[in-house]
Amino acid sequence: MVKLPAPKFTDASIEVCIRNRRSIRNFKSKDLSLQEISNLLWAAQGITEKKYGFRSAPSAGATYPLIIFIAKSDGLFQYIPETHSLKIKSHNDLRPDIAEAALNQNFIKDAGMVMVITAIFERTTARYGKRGIRYVHNEVGHCAQNIHLEAVALGLGSVPIGAFDDQMLKELLGLSQEDPLYIIPVGYPE
Ligand SMILES: Cc1cc2nc3c(=O)[nH]c(=O)nc-3n(C[C@H](O)[C@H](O)[C@H](O)COP(=O)(O)O)c2cc1C
Known about the structure:
By secondary structure, the protein is an alpha+beta fold. It has helices at residues 14-20, 34-45, 95-101, 122-128, 131-153, 166-173, and strands at 2-3, 47-49, 54-55, 66-72, 75-80, 85-90, 113-119, 157-158, 179-187. It has six helices and nine strands, in the order βααβββββαβααβαβ. The strands form two sheets. Strands 1-6-5-4-7-9-8 form a seven-stranded antiparallel beta sheet, sandwiched between helices. Strands 2-3 form a two-stranded antiparallel sheet. It starts with a strand and ends with a strand.
């Protein structure tokens, strides 16, 4: 387990972040700091209300189907919102393999951190049936946008990646129940 520092709030305005957000595909090959990783994961799925465990992004019926993995130079990790920490899954740098699974979008391997947003659909469909599938798709958009705007607030760049081979990515990350929905490389713009 790697305990993340508490998120440190910037004074960037939400309007400036919305205006300045662009999909960035050229990254310096430089690691992100643990503070930057903390802020990005907190924005994505951090717990912002302790009593009920509500998170930074809304969730249908608070069923919280999303699970985030991050790939960086020192390995693959799963974000654990309850403890704001990282659980180590692999010591290998999987970014080049993720780039390959994303139909050879090679810029992905240069990003300091590659986030993969996955979902356990059953958590939401157990309550809402077939409509739960739509809710999970809605929710991943909320989560991804929080990441993109936080990246701007930190002076970083990001891009949402929807084009990838689902099965290849699942095998690479060792996923069983979780289905990958988005890859988001985040890094220092070139
Ligand atoms: C669902 C979705 C999937 C996307 N997939 C990719 C992708 O696989 N590769 C990529 O480089 N950009 C991808 N993009 C980013 C778009 O190309 C980008 O948002 C668009 O060109 C508008 O530019 P902007 O994000 O700078 O406003 C995707 C965007 C969305 C919303």
